[in-house]
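Aim 2, interim progress: modelling of the prephenic acid-bound target.
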Amino acid sequence: MKEKELNKIAYLGPEASFTYLATKSLFPNETLIPYTTIPECIEAVSSEKVDLAVVPLENAIEGTVPLTIDYLYHEAELFIVAEVLSKIQQHLMVHKAQKDNWHNIEEIYSHPHALAQCHKYLFYRFSKVPLHQFSSTSAAAKLVSENPDRCIAAVGNTSSAEKYNLEIVEKNIHDFHFNHTRFVVLSKKNIRLQGKESEGKTKTTVMLTLPENVSGALHQVLSVYAWRKLDLSKIESRPLKTGLGDYFFIMDILADENEPMMKGAFEELKALGCTVKSLGTYDTYLTPE
Ligand SMILES: O=C(O)C(=O)C[C@]1(C(=O)O)C=C[C@@H](O)C=C1
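Predicted structure of the complex, ligand included:
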């Protein structure tokens, strides 16, 4: 598929969310369409309302975004065609009408991942203030902008503060300095995003289940990769939702799925009784800081 055909891109919005910034950095000239939730973004690309969707997959402090991983395994037949890594800085913001009153904040709104990234700050500084989970950081900022009379705050980025005309009253409130989020670009087709300057890293994401009641099955799976010198950059398990103790594994391998060693690995995994689902091979992009 030629890149000029990929012109409608869904993202977790509204405008100014971290996902928006990641999407805009990779697709500056395309039509970006905001959706309220991750499942809505995934559904939009699955039903071909859009060509691609960009959603968060993993954060350096909070780990995997379960909704994204679980939808990719259980609900959708999609491929990852690129990943974008973004630096994340969280700030506390209020309506400009409340800027001198912010020590009396009564409620704080943000995306659950953003609240969790600032857990220590919020706990020590605003321990009695209720925290409300919202669909995104920018949706929380928009809510604050629509309520000038309420002394409420949002946690989010500087773009949200600018877009919704809010006052940042405390900067960099995330608990750990190294805060990055990994976003993935999803497509119905197993294509590779072309024509953009990538970091030069190639990655393949695989989801697999182990054969039942086989001792050492995970060890066998890891040896399939190990003797071929295929470098795993991530392994994680998620519940299969069929019972306690039932899991699927997500593995990222730093290689192209079309390499002979990778093809051999997939064949061997299947012969061992694993189910293997590849989400495709893709490149890594960075958003400018
Ligand atoms: O709320 C946003 O701004 C998002 O784009 C979502 C999201 C996430 O799901 O992790 C993205 C990056 C940050 O880690 C916090 C929130």
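The pocket of prephenic acid is lined by residues 12, 17-19, 56, 59, 65, 88, 111, 113-114, 136-138, 181 (CB under 6 Å). The two ends are 30 Å apart (CA to CA).
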